[in-house]
Design a protein that fits this description.
Elements lengths: L15 H23 L1 H8 L4 H35 L1 H10 L1 H24 L6 H29 L5 H5 L2 E2 L2 E2 L8 H28 L8 H30 L9 H21 L3 H31 L13 H29 L1
Antiparallel strand pairs: 1-2
Amino acid sequence: MTPIPAFDPLGLPAPIWFLLALKVFGFWVHLIFMGLWFAGFVVGLLLLPSNGSLRLAGQRLLKRIPVIIAFGVNAGIVPLLFLQVLYPQFFYTSTVLQAWYWFSVIVLIIFAYYGTYYYVHNAEREERKRVATLIGWLSALIFLFLGIVFASEMQLMVTPDRWSDFFRHTIGGAVLGNRLAFDGIDLQRYVMVFGLSLSTVAAFFVFDRHLLNGSSEVQPEELRTLVLGLTFLGLVIFGAGAVPYLRHLQPYLKGIGLWKFLAGVGPFLALLGGVLYAIQPATSTAWLLVIFQALSLLFNAITRQIVQVRELAQHVDLSSLPLHIQLSPILLFLITFVVGVIVTLWLLRMYRTAST
């Protein structure tokens, strides 16, 4: 059996329920923004050759990609931080075993981030349009590759029995860190997240058009076909990954009641929202699609955390870990969190005002 490092003797700084709740919330918010660059970047670029409202909708999404990335990266830090607090011995070990790929995340995301800025500011300039489009596609591909790295890391973290394979490839006792653990299970979850992201993109289009007072040139009659197509394709792609992934999930879904079904029901809710919007493209149906997609992502975020906890339960019992509550960092986090929410709402209000 692969030896697992001991847990930090300082113990947990806050109750388990508190850490898990914030981890789930952070992951949920990250899923919302992440979907808009994970699948949205590709969808936006594919819409550019279109005419009328579809082209304009794609342009409006692409122009907001840099800001969306900023929100998504910052939101993604939250679940990673709480993951390191709850499972440091698993997280740090698995990242070291894939060190070069994990370090590449920082470099690649910087290139992709600034690549989106270059694209946004040069896509309409005729003399730079070709180069900007090339850089835009390169940035989109980088984000797709980063999804593979994260999927690999999350899977290797919960499978310590695979660590020994990495330890066999060393130089002077040091692991090379030049291998990914990406396998069939990672691919299935990767496909599922991409399917969820397509529905998130559909929700963004109606959110921008109806709820943020987006450009009146984006006609709902043209937008509804796109929204219905994205939610349907999202469900199909999600199902293509979820059906084989269920075999892996079965042992970890016992005894959790409705949660074993809600994650799979979520994409159907998004499709229902897409159908209702296609029948009657209005603000009311736009709200329904946005709410349904938010619930779909929340269901999947909660189910994912339940599975992760249960996957690692055979190696560590969270309830047995020492608890040494640290009020100062908890209060500082909560104050910063509240301020962050207020600032985010203010930014959305300014965006809505500027879009009118």
